[in-house]
Amino acid sequence: MIGLLALTSIPTVTGVSLASSEQRKANQRREEARRMVKFNIYAECDGDTDDDRELNGMTVVVRDGKVYLADPDPSKRDPPAFTALAFYIEYPEPEELKYLKRERGLGLPTYVADNPPLLNWIYADTVTHELRYGNRSQSVEEIVEPWDWCKEERVISLEGWRKRFMAVEEEEGEWALYYDRDGDELAAVLEEQDMLDCAFVPVTLIRKIVEEKPPPPPQAAPQAQAQAQNGQRQTSGK
User: Fold this and answer.
1) Residue range 182-211, pLDDT digits in tens
2) CA distances from 160 to 11, 103, 112, 148, 196 (A)
């Protein structure tokens, strides 16, 4: 009798298991879709110095392999730079580097050109701690993951840190982004590069979702347009 009851319960257990598996897959797809929503990035500064006020609200841009802060208006940027347009997606860890047992997670790809569209990965250089961008071969051995969000999905983090991004004035008016991985306000890496005299400002990187533009409606045939216009005229004449 017990054996018969066990056998009759198998279809029910299997059905519940399949339903649970499908639900997990559906939840995962929804989460991936949320993570892949495209966004621009801008800086928030908490300080009250002139540099803080100058950088607050500036936009993350990419040019010449590096990541900078610049004016939100592209026409006011000198030199010209492309506005970062990023999203989250799992970084493809190659088999040959799995022995490193690095913390796995999401990568942060960004468009670096729009004609033709070109995607690269944003990463922190393991030596200089600069934020840079490049293809998989350029980024794979650098600090390329895990990126994430926090604070109501607004604030961007790297390796779980959200208060470790610094803007460094490498040239007058030219602010490059760095990742303060050591928590020493970049003292060690800036000393190594003979850049201790450069101004620096802690920044928080904020997501600003870009609304996807709906496709334009299909053009009506000339005859349909003429009929619509005639109908409008007839209506207005009543």
Assistant:
1) 999 999 999 999 999 999 999 999 999 997
2) 43, 11, 25, 7, 26
- Which pLDDT score, from 0 to 100, does residue 32 have? 76
Asked if residue 11 has a cis previous peptide bond (ω within 30° of 0), the answer is no
Per the DSSP assignment, residues forming a β-bridge with 67 are 62
Tokens of 121: 């990965």
Is residue 141 within 8 Å of residue 100, measured between CB atoms? no
Q: Assess if residue 139 is contained within a domain.
A: yes
Q: Taking a C-beta distance cutoff of 8 angstroms, is the pair 158, 124 a contact? A: yes
Domain count within the chain: 1
Whole-angstrom Cα Rg for the chain: 26
- Say if residue 79 is preceded by a cis peptide, omega within 30 of 0: yes
Show Cβ contacts of residue 49 under 8 Å, excluding neighbours closer than 6 positions.
Answer: 201
In-domain check, residue 90: yes
d(CA 221, CA 206): 45
Using the Cα atoms of residue 46, residue 165, residue 76 and residue 41 in order, give the sign of their dihedral: negative
The answer to whether position 95 is within a domain reads yes
Range of the domain at 157: 34-162+204-209
Residue 179 lies in a domain: no
